[in-house]
Write a structure and sequence with these properties.
There is one protein chain. About 30% of the residues lie in helices and about 20% in strands. By secondary structure, the chain is α+β, with helices and mostly antiparallel strands. It has one domain: Catalase core domain (Catalase HpII,  Chain A, domain 1, Beta Barrel). Strands 1, 2, 3, 4, 5, 6, 7, 8, 9 and 10 form a 10-stranded antiparallel beta sheet that branches. β3 and β4 form a beta hairpin. α1 packs across α2 (about 25-40), α1 (about 5-20) packs across α9 and α5 crosses α6 (about 165-170). The N and C termini lie close together (about 10 Å). About 40% of the residues are buried.
Length: about 325
């Protein structure tokens, strides 16, 4: 284990330790990773407990003048290099890209800052999370794991869905397979807070919109798609032309839920364009990239995490999974 990985491992252990002192969130994180692993018939050594299968691209992010006014964050002041990981859902590394279980897809972005630091965005291809708290998420995963094969009789999972409309909506939502990751929008389901040069603060949620527009496979096309159809397509695509996305901030109105990622804000809320994400290369060596842990709470000055409990939970559960990958 090299020095850099050793430092990361120490940070991981300290995060889990600190979390364990706060309402035993470390225990919930460990049980969550255990349950993901069981659902994936794992462990699959060296892979993430969720979003196990992925591919990397590199490129740049160029901010807009509006972003510079909203936040003093360094990547909103000048163009910076980025690393992006696209992924399929679940902890199954060999899951076909077009499988119904592969969705929602993931898009993680690392902005490499001029001072040697970084900041990350973690997003999914569905606008909203199924539940509002880590405890409810673990409960949901456990019920899925234990759901009976006989669905004629209402199960504990059925009763949970009936009592949690957001989870039911998440499960029932149409999740079509994109023709390419270049045609798939992504959403940051948790809120953050911008701070500008005057100290003014503004809640927001991220949206990542493909410049090529949304485009999805027909059902038959998805059913007959190759196992790695999306992973291979995006790598081939950037070799001939860059893939671009618009990074947006959705701003809430008074009364919108700020700390509940299971409640999407209405589409008529104000949208601010933050900049252009331009992906134009496949990294030659990804082993070091795949050892990274994307951390949505690795934030520079100018962006603060909200108190959304799922957002606060994410780095802890990622840390448990990351420690096992090491």
């Amino acid at each position: 284990m090299n020095k850099k990985i050793s430092v990361i491992a120490a940070v991981v252990l300290s995060m889990v330790s600190a979390a364990g002192q706060a309402q035993d969130i470390g225990t919930i994180a460990t049980k969550t990773v255990d349950t993901f692993t069981e659902l994936a018939s794992g462990p699959h050594h060296g892979f993430r407990a969720n979003h196990a299968k992925g591919t990397f691209l590199t490129g740049s992010f160029t901010p807009t003048a509006e972003a510079q006014q909203l936040s003093v964050a360094p990547h909103f002041q000048a163009t910076v290099p980025v690393v992006v990981r696209f992924s399929t859902g679940t902890g199954v590394p060999a899951l076909p890209d077009a499988s119904p279980h592969a969705r929602p897809y993931g898009m993680a972005i690392r902005f490499n800052l001029a001072d040697g630091g970084f900041t990350d965005i973690v997003s999914i291809s569905h606008n909203g999370f199924p539940v509002a708290t880590p405890e409810k998420f673990l409960e949901l995963l456990t019920l899925i794991k234990n759901a009976p094969a006989d669905t004629a009789i209402p199960s504990a999972l059925d009763k949970f869905m009936a009592a949690h409309p957001a989870a039911a909506a998440f499960a029932a939502a149409s999740k079509p397979v994109p023709v390419s990751f270049a045609n798939q929008p992504f959403f940051g389901v948790n809120s953050f807070i911008f701070e500008n040069h005057s100290g003014k603060q503004q809640y927001f949620r991220y949206r990542i919109i493909p410049k090529a527009g949304e485009k999805y496979m027909e059902t038959a096309e998805a059913e007959n798609a190759a196992t790695d159809v999306l992973m291979q397509e995006i790598g081939q695509r950037v070799q001939s032309a860059a893939v671009e996305y618009i990074l947006q901030a959705q701003l809430p109105k008074d009364g919108d839920p700020l700390l509940d990622g299971s409640q999407p804000w209405p589409n008529d809320r104000n949208i601010v364009e933050l900049g252009t994400l331009r992906l134009n290369a496949v990294p030659q060596e990804i082993s070091h990239l795949d050892k990274q842990m994307f951390n949505p709470l690795a934030l520079p000055k100018g962006i603060t995490a909200s108190a959304d409990p799922v957002l606060q939970f994410r780095p802890v559960v990622y840390a448990v999974s990351f420690g096992r990958r090491l």
